[in-house]
Amino acid sequence: MSEDFGNVTELSNRDDGFRLSSHFMSKIRVMNRNIRHLPMSTAERLVVRQSSRYNMANTADLQLGAGGRKGLVSTNAAYLTCATGATSPGGVTRVTSVIEQLKLGYVFLLLQMASNKSKGAKSKNQPPKKKQRNDLFIDKKRPTKKDEVLDDVSDGHSEEEEEAGDLLDGDDDDVSEISDEDDAPLADDFLQGSDDNEDSGSGSTSGSGSDSDSDETDIEEKSRAIDEQRAREEKDAQAEMELNIKEESDEFRLPTKEQQRPPDLANLQMRIKEIVRVLSNFKDMRQEGTTRKDYIDQLKIDLGSYYGYNEFLIRVLVDMFPVVELMELIEAFEKPRPTCIRTNTLRTRRRDLANFLSKRGVELDQLSKWSKVGLVVYNSHVPIGATPEYLAGFYYLCALSLYFFYIQSASSFLPVMALAPQEKERVVDMAAAPGGKTTYVAALMKNSGIIYANEISEARLKSLTANLHRMGVTNTIVCNYDGRELPKVLGQNSVDRVITKDPSVKTSKSLDDIQKCAHLQKQLILAAIDMVDANSKSGGYIVYSTCSIMVPENEAVIDYALKKRDVKVVPCGLDFGCPGKPRRFYPLVHNMDGFFVAKLKKMSNAKKNPINSEDLETIVQTQRPENTPIDKDNTEELKQNLKKQGNKWKKESLKKNVLSKNGKVESPPTSKTKKRTETGKVESPLSSKKRKRRFPSKEEISEAREGKRKAMREKRKQGRKE
Ligand SMILES: C[S@@+](CC[C@H](N)C(=O)[O-])C[C@H]1O[C@@H](n2cnc3c(N)ncnc32)[C@H](O)[C@@H]1O
């Protein structure tokens, strides 16, 4: 049995990893950018198994190990280890393991090669019995005299073996990739036999049945020798295989401190995947002696390096989402959102616009079922922001820029759809530039009623007014105020609907940013509520929306509004998004930017109680994402500001309200809480007003405050213990 490096079987490199093209081929050829050549002896068969856990250095060896042949091939980025075992009577060899590095990951290929070295002589010999045939697959090679004898005896292979090969080797389609010249002579001839080797066995001991038949003892001895040899070689091969597998252990290990220098991107990505894999089955897959926190910490570092997020963002995201979802979300953020345009129904119809634009070479389609005016642009031969239709105000271009959390895209439709402005209403857009929402509101109102489009930045007023003109909006008054001042300017309870959008256009966020934004947003939402008239016939609604996925900027703001004003959350009327009344939209699910929309209905024009010490705590807590350590300086500053503000409000409130004994500000009596006099009669509000109000003394106030603080401290302590 001679070495034959000329014959190779083909493996093809596919997206999903390696697939063995064929088996029982006379050639073994690994088609991969990394591996050029895998020299094997003729008629070896490959069985491929794949795993993605191997982190191999770029070396270029092919080794045929214990008891087999050694070969070296030039490959440019793969380390292959093949160990051959003893030769079977049938000349079938089982080979080894091959470890391979692929483009984006490391793939472990275990190649078991069953040599079909001997291919002839069937015609002169009985095919081996079934059991014998099965044995052949675990037998190893190294040509011995006996091998040669038996090589000649055993030839061809059974259908069962072929089937087994099919199962192990992959698609039959790939067989066709092998050229005819690769095929035949040695293929599939194991049990069928062939005459090729008939005469080329090992001379006198060939299995032709002529010489050896006469000497049974000799054969028995030889057979015993073969068995012994085989056992030895099997042992060697097993040892080597175990060694190889051990060397390239399947276990993923976290890097030690020394290994934590910046890895290359491929390694980094691989490690992220591995950590996610381990975290999703932590009990079974974790490295001994490590905690979940170890993996999470490494994941945060790696995500930060790979995706370029700051530490704070990663920390918040990791705290918010289970790792698998987090990976999907981050991947989705990486993909650009589609460019969307909104038809300006003040100027044209969507169908007509689509026709105009497609004539100009714009490839577009309807945005989706949920919008009657949106179009998605896939490709355009003309600048979509400079077509005559654009300049004539036929559409508003929604995807202007790609920020991380602040992106204008299809999601900017949703707040206006939730607002559902009606004709002839008075509507306020509190932070309006550059006018995406205002122009949409105007279109829905068919230019009737009044829109107050407010923008704090003078510089941004230009883009706002330019868009209003371009889009033919005529029912809008542009204002230049801080939104928080608007109730004073426009009057309290004076409009039907208000839309308020997060005022930030930042590209990245820190804890400080989020705290400041959340604080401003709370003030803006109260101002928005104060402007709306609860008794409006058609309205009484406030829509609050952000492009942020941060809880302190979303749910916490709504929570705050619910505490401070007589409002309730009502359905947005958007039948998609994540469940719950306020809607969260995630790019991975909805193919739009991370987005939050909440709709409030103002129930009465009465205000709830001003801030008390409890609220101060609530504000600080809700501004901090859960489980996220607070930046001490910022928090102190924020606390100070809030306390100042709180004190001011408190002073005012003390004039109007009575502190109860436990320090809580008592709400104005409602019909349910109307006090009864000692005689059991319900006191009318009028009579209670008439009664002289008793204000608490300073001592009572400070006592109540102290009691409150104590209770809070106890509560926190208990929380920490838990
Ligand atoms: C994200 S943009 C609004 C986008 C706009 N709603 C649209 O649909 O085109 C936020 C705007 O809020 C403005 N802004 C920031 N703080 C504000 C405040 N206190 N009052 C009013 N506007 C503010 C910013 O200058 C910025 O133009």
Automatic annotation (TrEMBL):
Keywords: Methyltransferase, Ribosome biogenesis, RNA-binding, S-adenosyl-L-methionine, Transferase. InterPro entries: MeTrfase_RsmB-F_NOP2_cat, MeTrfase_RsmB-F_NOP2_dom, Nop2p, RCMT, RCMT_NOP2, SAM-dependent_MTases_sf. The keyword Kinase does not apply. Residues 149-186 have a biased composition (Acidic residues). Residues 133-148, 220-238, 245-261, 629-640, 696-706 have a biased composition (Basic and acidic residues). Residues 200-211 have a biased composition (Low complexity). It holds the Pfam family Methyltr_RsmB-F. Residues 119-132, 707-722 have a biased composition (Basic residues). Residues 329-603 form the SAM-dependent MTase RsmB/NOP-type domain. Its main location: nucleus. S-adenosyl-L-methionine binds at A431, A432, A433, P434, G435, G436, K437, E455, D482. It is found in: Nucleus, Nucleolus. Residues 117-238, 245-264, 608-722 are annotated as: Disordered. The active site is at C547. SUPFAM superfamilies: S-adenosyl-L-methionine-dependent methyltransferases. It comes from the Eukaryota. Belongs to the class I-like SAM-binding methyltransferase superfamily. RsmB/NOP family. This is SAM-dependent MTase RsmB/NOP-type domain-containing protein.
